[in-house]
Amino acid sequence: MRQRLSSEPDRYRGRRRVPTPPRSRYAAVVTTAFVGAGVVALGASALPDAKAVHPSTLAELENAAATSEDLSARAADAERASRDQRGGLETSLAEAPDVWLLPLRDYDFTLPYGVRWNKMHAGIDLTAPEGTPYQAIHAGKVVKAGWYGGYGYCVIVAHPDGTESIYGHSSKLFVREGQEVKAGDTLGLVGNTGHSYGSHLHLELHVNGEPRDPIPFLREKGVDIKLQVEAIYGGVIDS
Predict the structure, then answer these.
(1) CB pairs under 8 A, 24+ apart, for 113-119?
(2) Among candidate residues 206, 205, 173, 213, the one with its CA nearest the CA of residue 190
(3) Domain end among 95, 122, 147
(4) How far apart are CA 182 and CA 137, in angstroms?
(5) So what's the pLDDT on residue 50?
(6) In this structure, are residues 123 and 214 in contact, taking their beta carbons and an 8 Å threshold?
(7) What is the CATH number of the domain that holds 114?
């Protein structure tokens, strides 16, 4: 190789020379490009051409999709109808004249029927936050709605079988005397009025004017106060 004389101009001064890749690397790059092109071509040939699909096959696919959508719509309609039917059944059962229900939801059973402080406690006490709604345990007619001595604000419902249910110590009443109510109708709000030791609902049951222990009486009707269970479908809860 001839050496460049010092008097000859340097043609590469100020330029960056890119090194020529080795022949092996050049061959690898070219081979990879050809292989990639072949894969793309092979994949393209594997995809079906929409124009090549037989019309009857397309019709079958369209019918299958329509059938699937129709089945989904029918299933949704059936589920909706089932929910409506269940809701209507529960509502009709609650309105039946022989249904008995719990007076409260989410309460603590704090005091049973019996003698307390040398006096007869003629009902049971169910503790709940003040302002909690309580409901009629059975259908009947409101014969008292107002202040009732030691009971504070009180509701008394007379039932067709001669039983009376008494709800004491209310903070607010939603019914009036002479009003007909169904099982589950809201009568008032839990309070601490009258001779009360704290926010709770005092529930009494009188049969032919005589007080009865609500626990066994209501259990025979399918309602368990202690377990907070009501058998509105007509079943009786065993003790």
Answers:
(1) 113/211, 113/213, 113/214, 113/215, 114/213
(2) 173
(3) 95
(4) 8
(5) 43
(6) yes
(7) 2.70.70.10
